[in-house]
Amino acid sequence: MDIKKAFLFFKNLHKNQTYSDWSQYRPHLLRVGNILQHYLDLFWEFEKEMSNSITIAWYWHDSLEDTDISLDTLQETFWNTIANLIWGMTNEQSDTHTDIYVQKICRAKEEIRLIKLADLCDNYSSIVYRALENNPQFLKEKILPIMEPMYQEIITTSFVKYPKTWAEFLSNVKKCHDLADTYINFLCLN
Fold first, then answer.
1. Residue 23: which pLDDT band, with cuts at 50, 70 and 90?
2. Which range in 27-41, 71-85, 149-163 is most confidently predicted, on average pLDDT?
3. What CATH number does domain 3-189 carry, 3.30.950.10, 3.40.50.1980, 1.10.3210.10, 3.10.360.10?
4. Which is nearest to 101 in space by CA: 140, 131, 64?
5. How far apart are the first and last CA of the chain?
């Protein structure tokens, strides 16, 4: 399947999905893709087939968690490489049970960890953007504790296949994390 068809399939699947404040969910998936695509283009450490697989997988990285699509349908629709990347990104537990998921991601293939890093970059950036619209105390007490264990563990993993991409990602994930943490703490004090 080509990237354009995958994008249209993803767009239709997530068309009615929203956050609790009714804002659309699809922009998150697109931003994760844009972040990752930037790094794929910047360092050229990926073979074309893997780059295409990662591109399609980022559109779908939350599909098994947030839609009714099954792994079997993903495997029928896409080739196994893509389905395996998506499955690797899937939290089989709820967001309140992150320990198993954190270990799954940290032991996963480098491509899966890169998608997760792009996801974290966008999630931390979104927290900063949404902090004034939402209750910062809620973000501090409920959302950051879900993200923090993943962040703390994934930054300690190593990358052999994509060292330049990883180094740049690590720097930016740390900046996004620190900005979100500082900003939410500041808002909670005031």
1. low
2. 149-163
3. 1.10.3210.10
4. 64
5. 51
